[in-house]
Structures
1.
Amino acid sequence: MVKQSIENRMMVQYLSKKGYSPTAIARQLGTNTQFVYRWKNRKDVGRQLGSGRPPKLDKKRIAKIEKRLTSKDRPSQRMVAQELGISQPTICRGIKKAGLRPYRQYHKPALNETQRMKRVSFAKKHKRDNWDHVLFVDEKTFELQHHPNRKNDVFYARTQAEVPPVPTLKHPAKVHVAAGVAFGGRTNLHFFEVNMTSNIYLDILRETLLPGAFSIFGNHPFKLLQDSDPKHTSKAVYKFLDDQHIDYYHKNSWPANSPDINIIENVWAMLADAINKNPPSTLRQLKKKLKDEWKNLSQDHINNAVRSIPNRLSEIIKQNGGPTNY
């Protein structure tokens, strides 16, 4: 319904006193006759006071709700409702009117002073690198077991006994996956089912990561970014990369405990979300689904993550080496 202006209400009363019919008034004002009948005999043109009780959610109460819920002791909605003498549904409406949204706390690595200083040093030194020509590589383990989102997997029941349990395996089957991502492309997935060693990592470099990098970058030079895992930084691995004339970030410069710089961590999270939407039931299905979902990942999202690296490094400098929001 279009809210009519006070001027239109005044014109309805004026034209009515002049003897115009409701139809003529409605036609002249471009409104409907229902509006004319409602206002032509009214004594005022403002809001008519209703008979209901005043709303509980005035600006002052909304401010109280916001202040309590954002305080350091983080009280529950139920506690705030009891303190203010209103119902919990009213609290929910107040939260919405205050512009608040519920968020879950995220986990960030605990960083010591040495790690912070190294992160700042890396950020300052490499902030202006050409990140479009960097291959970000890492490994990830996927288990044949669904990990539900406890916040969304809710069952409404009268007793706990009516809620079905989540079946879990003590030693679920799992597969290790290695891959690389870059601006404009990604390598194939490389599956392996034994614990990583430097020799296995060398095989992954030869068979998957470097061929994938050459496919992405062509004849353009690129740089390899890998974390400081001992399997990645062994003498054999560095010798192989040097022999192949592959540039890389050395372990002496790469800051430990810094998953917020290696954007493949974000890509693994995207892949895990896609897998958990419809979890497979066999190891063969898991591998197939990993391949399918890997191909279906949005390259635009990966490109945006790569382009966010300078902002990430600026945030590290701003936070004096502390964790960022990435």
2.
Amino acid sequence: MPEPRPLISDTRRQLEIAAVVLTAACRFLPINWLEWKLPFIVVATVGWTTYVLLRRKRMPGILQYWGFRADNFREVLKIVLPFGIISVVTFVLLGIYLDTINLTWHIVPVLLLYPVWGTIQQFLVIGLVAGNLKDLSASTLPKPVTILLPALLFGLIHYPFNWLIVGTFLLAGFYGYVYWQSRNLYVLGLFHGWLGGLFFYTVVGRDPFVEVFGKFF
């Protein structure tokens, strides 16, 4: 049975997509140029969390629709887990081949904290962009396009890091497909955080803990 679709106007859906694109565009100045990663993450998290809470108050059931739900956690986990295992093995093999494995104790707090930020990102890219493209009443976009466009957006916001562009594009493409089948942002956010953290320390050879918190230690 298809998921119930709440009565959300096309105008609101389009505005939500535009707001996500604006958030992505604003990422370049604080992160790529000024290296203010933590302030950007905090502002984006607080801003979008506030929006989620306001929408929940005004439209009961919107959280379930977006994918903030636990009833289908196991179902979605069974789909994503094999992809996650294959990804981890691939990361390690690529890291060995490229000689980019850089494992430190920093990976522990990253794997604990990154899923929170990962869930926010999945809500924006998959929940709002892919979900709204899918459910626009006036949309004639075929299913592959509604998956491809958010994946392209997610890949491009990681410019100019080629490995991150490729990795996040593939991740978002797969997640978009999963979201079409059964919406659960918790599973997607959890694996986004874990796979993203491992990807940094194996393939990319960077330390996101230092990049985000380094100025405070």
3.
Amino acid sequence: MRLFKENKPNRKPLLISIAALLVIVAYCIFTFANVSKSTTQEKMNITQQAIERAVVNCYALEGFYPSNIEYLENNYGVLIDHKKYVILYETVGSNVRPYVEVVQRGNTM
């Protein structure tokens, strides 16, 4: 005969704590992934804006649009990470503004 009733451990608070921790960890991972994507997009936008500013500066100073992106890199200090980005640069003539687009390369780390 027992004098005292045995108390079973209450596991409910522990399970709630574990579930809350898992939700917080999942939220942090999701947020980090979104921040990483938006940072990559912002870097591409900055690169494209730098190229476009250099194109306009070249036309204003020299009277023609550059025929290739290398001209901007050599003469206007445009820095492009060619390992991360492909630059689509299409010209029609020296007096027509070129088409510029920055595209991310696949499989970058």
4.
Amino acid sequence: MNTERMEGNWKIFSGRVRERWGKLTDDDMDVIQGKRDQLAGRVQKAYGITKEDAQKQIDEFEKKL
């Protein structure tokens, strides 16, 4: 999935993102707005993982969509 598609369908994908990364807050979701780099940063911060691990989780998440 490309970034434009995620941004364009953010309302649909945001529910799935919240299911996958439940520690993300409503404020996090407002900041992310479908932007992959913002999602990676927020996942990294919320879960205390490396940027590479966050990117890997997002890649796996996108493949399942």
